[in-house]
Amino acid sequence: MPEKTIESCNITRLDILSETGEADEALMPPLSEEQIRKIYALLVLCRTFDHRALNLQREGRIGTYASILGQEASQVGSAFALEKSDWAFPSFREMGVYIAIGYPPYMLFQYWSGDERGLRTPDDLNIFPVSIPVGTHIPHASGAAMAAKYRKDKVAAVAYFGDGGTSKGDFHEALNFAGVFKAPAVFICQNNQWAISLPRERQTAAKTLAQKAVAYGFEGIQVDGNDVFAVYKATKNALDKAKNGEGPTLIECYTYRMSDHTTADDASRYRKKEEIEEWKARDPILRLELFMERKGILSDEYKKKVEDEAKQKVDDAVKTAESVEHPHPADMITFTYEKPTPRQKKEMRDF
Amino acid sequence: MPEKTIESCNITRLDILSETGEADEALMPPLSEEQIRKIYALLVLCRTFDHRALNLQREGRIGTYASILGQEASQVGSAFALEKSDWAFPSFREMGVYIAIGYPPYMLFQYWSGDERGLRTPDDLNIFPVSIPVGTHIPHASGAAMAAKYRKDKVAAVAYFGDGGTSKGDFHEALNFAGVFKAPAVFICQNNQWAISLPRERQTAAKTLAQKAVAYGFEGIQVDGNDVFAVYKATKNALDKAKNGEGPTLIECYTYRMSDHTTADDASRYRKKEEIEEWKARDPILRLELFMERKGILSDEYKKKVEDEAKQKVDDAVKTAESVEHPHPADMITFTYEKPTPRQKKEMRDF
Amino acid sequence: MPKLNMVQAINLALKEEMERDGSVIVMGEDVGRDGGVFRVTEGLLEKFGTERVMDTPLSESGIVGTAIGMAAYGLRPVAEIQFMGFIYPALDQIFSHAARLRSRSRGRYTCPLVVRTPYGAGIRAPEIHSESTEALFCHMPGIKVVVPSTPSTAKGLLKSAIRDPDPVVFLESTRVYRQIKEDVTDEEYTIPLGKARIAKEGKEVTLVAWGSMLHRCLKAAEGMDAEVIDLMTLSPFDEETLYRSARKTGRVVVVHEAPKTCGVGAEISASLAEEAMLYLKAPIMRVTGYDAVIPLPKLEDYYMPDVNRIKRSIDEVMKY
Amino acid sequence: MPKLNMVQAINLALKEEMERDGSVIVMGEDVGRDGGVFRVTEGLLEKFGTERVMDTPLSESGIVGTAIGMAAYGLRPVAEIQFMGFIYPALDQIFSHAARLRSRSRGRYTCPLVVRTPYGAGIRAPEIHSESTEALFCHMPGIKVVVPSTPSTAKGLLKSAIRDPDPVVFLESTRVYRQIKEDVTDEEYTIPLGKARIAKEGKEVTLVAWGSMLHRCLKAAEGMDAEVIDLMTLSPFDEETLYRSARKTGRVVVVHEAPKTCGVGAEISASLAEEAMLYLKAPIMRVTGYDAVIPLPKLEDYYMPDVNRIKRSIDEVMKY
Ligand SMILES: Cc1ncc(C[n+]2csc(CCOP(=O)(O)OP(=O)(O)O)c2C)c(N)n1
Ligand SMILES: Cc1ncc(C[n+]2csc(CCOP(=O)(O)OP(=O)(O)O)c2C)c(N)n1
Ligand SMILES: [Mg+2]
Ligand SMILES: [Mg+2]
Q1: DSSP E strands, chain B
Q2: Residues in chain C with pLDDT < 70?
Q3: Cα C276 from chain centroid?
Q4: How confident is the model at residue A1, as a pLDDT?
């Protein structure tokens, strides 16, 4: 019959590391023991940073903060696949990405304490300031990718956003541009199942977020976001693909927001404790530890060493952040344009 | 292996009436001879209207006009499936929809001659004023559908837009809302292969536009847009589905813009004559005529009668449109709010 | 009478209007289960159900766009944009459609829509959570802009906004939300749009403000014979009350937290310069935010006009 | 010297800048194969190829959003929005990102982006093709707004805009596009942003305008001792030149086609009322579009300020 099928698409899901720490050898990406140790240390550092940030907020030493608890593997696993020359465009919940690429943690505390200077990316890194308006930074990644392609640089641009971000018009326009111009872009969706109080299934009627790539004619894949190896592998493949001129990829990291939305939120108003308990068992760090134990590369003293180092780094970061001098009021005007306008010059006399 | 498929989707295409006028009986919708005659008369009326509008523009009697030549079946076939109580949200290239639901043709001429009064929908019709900003009216259809559902009215809302419209953020947000709220909405994309000078394949990397529905978790289907039976059937099915609470549908009418984008455009700058020639053979009216001849329901005198009636209607419409008095200058202010503001009252003294 | 803060007063207004009129619905991000990030819609879902209190996807243009369709269909949607900094993606829907539906259809279709959104600095919020861009919406014919400064006026104004046949952008100061409590009757009352309120009578200088800045003006006016006008509706604004006061005092200071250039203060000043200049004894001064992006918390206090900056401008005009 | 209209002058500016600097790229709807709906980018695709002249999907937020990413990466995108009425979906990208990238990153990232768009009424265009909402962008710290009124200034201003390290919204009057031809040298020259131009010297009254309205002001000024200022850059605008002229003439009339309320005329008037009031002999008058949606062609001429309306206001201020 002429009611014929003219297009078919399959969305796949990648799992490598099980909750009990068993890895599928056939799918395991080529990571050296040292690299795995590095990843582990980063995961621990992220969690230590996050834990401290929450405490600092409670003590009123920083402002509202968005925790990454539970999403460490999605962030570290993907960021670990980046080359230094790649560009990252994070949302406000990507502290793990910043930390993984070597952004000074003290600057992150500085930012969350309400000081723009914390967002001044060091010259040797290519990461954008966090995007507060959800999803609106995704086109920037598409544009940077298009620019890299025009310059013939072997560079990819990676955008990070949440499940809620996929509902924004800018998500749509950004991915459509990337598809049309075959831009070397990778779109990493941190599907942590919640957008503040809105559960994933109310965010969109689509069964998966990965399948939204179908609308743009490129590949979408879902990975276990609490499986650092799966996240790393999917991202690495997408980056290679991008740099080989094979176009963009959408990666849905299926993970969970273990904390409240932010320190200003109370998740108990809208979600059940049981759900959180369920996800505890899927903890990304626990899982990697079990794997490393099996491999015999996680001794108690090594574990302690990693935790102490993380604690030390975070302590130092807090100290540094809290010792920087207060910004000068005129700063709020100085950076509007390359040169202040006549009116701004007048305004700056107030300080 | 745990790289498993978690979602699959197939996009189908519906063809019923062949270019030679043969209809697939198995797929043929239940249309009476009288209904088919009605459809035929509407198609002819649309083409006559369109032809006249182009002439009037050349003579400077109306302003810039967007021709529907070649898209008559997509517009009439879909609009014919609407019930009087359904709501339509057209773009600027939907004169065929207006005509098919019984909008006074003279008002359409009035609008294109630069008079807002032409957009004042008669009280017994539910069609929105044309949307000039591409795609931005699609959310209105989703909203009206949500409202109808809330009111428990057996009413569907239908949005019309082009291939270019699918690239807009509002398309994305509108379809996502419709999916999430299972709204009784039908989204009809007039894929006429061009967005001014941009060919369909540069508009998006997706192979079909119908597959964009995958992103929203509901059905997308492509139909031969020059096949009035296929368009009618797909729309009727989608409307029934919507009113039965089974949610929205995206219909891609695969058709062609035979004219320049508008009277202000010169398509020879960016597309080949050959392409237009190819599509001539697929003409939607010719095709229906061949079908009706086979069925023996298209005599020469009947054909002539239909054409004469169409010409008469259009003549009358032009006469009426050109005989309405010039709008009063204050009108441009009067309709801003229910009551003019003090400042507006002052401003109106200028006239 | 119960003492309510502005959050509670607005919540009460919503409840009353929803009880009064089944066509009033509330929609937005986290307005349902969560009761809104500021708790303004708390309890509405429980009372009116998910059909009338809709948690929407994260989609500002979609929220306003679908609300326009609902309004045209016959509902009276009250759409919440979670913070004013996130209203810009919906600006096209507000300006190209909500504002024009009546004129484009020559009155066949109207858009009785209220877009509520928290605005302004002063609560140590993150980036883009402290916007005060009321001026953009005052330049949109077809839109009305309302900014209450107190709980009781907030209730009366919101009820009028919901009943208004045309689209209203309703701005709620995050700073005022829980700052003041006052008597708010749960009896039926509304406050007409388009009328200003004399918050304090005076003869020597006129201070014009709205929302959170009104309170700083009242502070600055303490102990002097200053008249303080709470504009309440910014578009269309109450020219008559403004001119009457300016003619009386001959001196005007306009205060807002938005950047100075092309802020609403400019319109007020320009209107005076056109209509009342001959009565003015002194230049018309504007005390506003700086022409800069609103800074993060560490510099926030330097950005917002404070009592001292207002006082300095008053002293300035009193020199004449 | 070749006589060019504004379309040709802008086209020449683009060509020169693209030849000079490989990081300059042009993007937008129909800017390539079609050469733009007004032919402003005609011939650029043939000359510079599809890599530098990109036909984009129909996607205004996407155009500006991707252009921001390109600019941050090191390119100098010149993005075209086909008509100003379609810039609103991109307003969030312009305001929340382009305008703030420098300040948010404390100078690490900048956004050397030009957003070109045709604006204004007067060519019998369809709905939403005649917008003149420059005021919205003048209220956005971090954005510069430029509106040329003649072919030669258009060329010099656009070249400066492209070389400017910060985002510029560049508005081109559809009415002026083919209205005037004048000598435009293909030699290298630029016109600095932020400086106004005295289009006509005079002593008795100052007329302030930009874009298409400048020409109506010049007509209205014929035969009288009026000074006509072509503001050229609306943000940041040239206060000094404005005040100097106002102090000299003591009378000011501001003219723009945008609606009156919260238009740029308000800012100019308010600035004068603050900085130069003591020198003014007469109220500051504004001659503007009405507070209404710009009508369709049949009423268009009644909407736009014409020479007579301008003259009437001049007579008005000359009474003092
Ligand atoms: C455009 C926009 N609308 C609303 C908000 C307020 N808000 C902040 S985070 C958030 C939810 C985001 O959900 P998601 O995209 O899933 O990211 P997550 O917070 O889960 O990491 C909302 C609604 C915002 N920041 N930006
Ligand atoms: C938001 C917006 N951007 C740009 C335009 C200018 N424009 C008018 S029609 C058109 C192309 C529309 O293409 P499509 O959606 O395929 O509809 P078609 O014209 O083919 O019917 C463009 C770019 C517009 N009207 N609205
Ligand atoms: Mg989320
Ligand atoms: Mg098309």
Answers
A1: 4-14, 87-89, 157-162, 185-191, 194-195, 198-199, 219-224, 249-254
A2: none
A3: 25
A4: 42
The pair of structure tokens assigned to A293 is 């134990």
List the chains bordering chain A where 3 or more Cβ pairs fall under 8 Å.
B, C, D
The two beta strands, D168-173 and A194-195, are unpaired
- Residue in C with minimal Cα distance to A116: C296
Atom of ligand 1 nearest to the CA of A93: 21
CA distance C318 to C315: 5
Alpha carbon of B232 to those of B15, B71, B342: distances in Å?
Answer: 11, 13, 51
CA distance D93 to C241: 38
Q: Which residue has the tokens 């759409």?
A: C79
| Strand D53-55 relative to strand D168-173, pairing | unpaired
Query: What is the identity of the amino acid at D240?
Result: E
Supply the DSSP symbol for A129.
P
Q: D28 — phi, psi (to 5°)?
A: 155, -175
H or E, element range at A4: strand A4-14
> What contacts C228, CB < 8 A, 6 or more positions away?
C198, C199, C200, C202, C206, C207, C209, C214, C217, C218, C221
String of DSSP letters for A273-341: HHHHHHHHTT-HHHHHHHHHHHTT---HHHHHHHHHHHHHHHHHHHHHHHHSPPPPTTHHHHTSSSS--
* Global pTM value: 0.98
pLDDT at B3: 81
Exposure class string for B57-66: b at 16+ Cβ within 10 A, else e: beeebbbbbb
Contacts of A117 in chain D (CB under 8 A): 106
| Ligand 1, pocket-test mutation among A72, A91, A134, A171, most atoms within 8 A of CB | A134
Q: Is C223 exposed, middle or buried (0-12, 13-18, 19+ CB in 10 A)?
A: exposed
Residue A94 neighbours by CB distance under 10 Å: 27
Element of type H or E holding C92: helix C91-92
What ipTM does the predicted assembly reach? 0.98
Return the sign of the alpha-carbon dihedral for residues D200, D204, D208, D214. negative
DSSP string, B70-95: T-HHHHHHHHTT--TTSEEE-BTT-H
pLDDT score, position A2: 58
Residue D252: phi and psi, rounded to 5, are: -135, 135
Q: What is the DSSP string of C236-248?
A: T--HHHHHHHHHH
> How many Å apart are CA A268 and CA A254, to the nearest integer?
22
Find the Cα–Cα–Cα–Cα dihedral D246, D247, D248, D251, rounded to 10°: 40
* DSSP designation for C296: P
Distance (Å, rounded) from C-alpha D110 to C-alpha D101? 6
Alpha-carbon span B234 to A314, nearest angstrom: 61
Task: For residue B144, give both structure tokens.
Answer: 């009206």
Say yes or no to pLDDT of A12 above 80.
yes
Chain centroid offset of residue D220 CA: 21
Active-site residue, from A117, A120, A150, A270: A270
**Cα(B75)–Cα(B231) distance, integer angstroms:** 8
Q: What is the CA(A133)–ligand 1 centre distance, in A? A: 7
Q: Each residue of A165-186: pLDDT tens digit? A: 999 999 999 999 999 999 999 9
pLDDT in tens, B99-122: 999 999 999 999 999 999 999 999
Would you call C269 and D270 a contact, using CB atoms and an 8 Å cutoff?
yes
Give the atom of ligand 1 at the shortest distance from the alpha carbon of C128. 25
- DSSP letters along B99-132, please? HHHT--HHHHHHHHTT-GGGG---TT--BPPPB-
- Asked if C134 and C147 count as a contact pair (C-beta separation under 8 A), the reply is yes
Q: What is the Cα–Cα distance from D242 to D257, expressed in whole angstroms?
A: 19
Q: Quick: pLDDT tens for A139-154.
A: 999 999 999 999 999 9
Output the DSSP codes for C67-84: HHHHHHHT-EEEEEPSSG
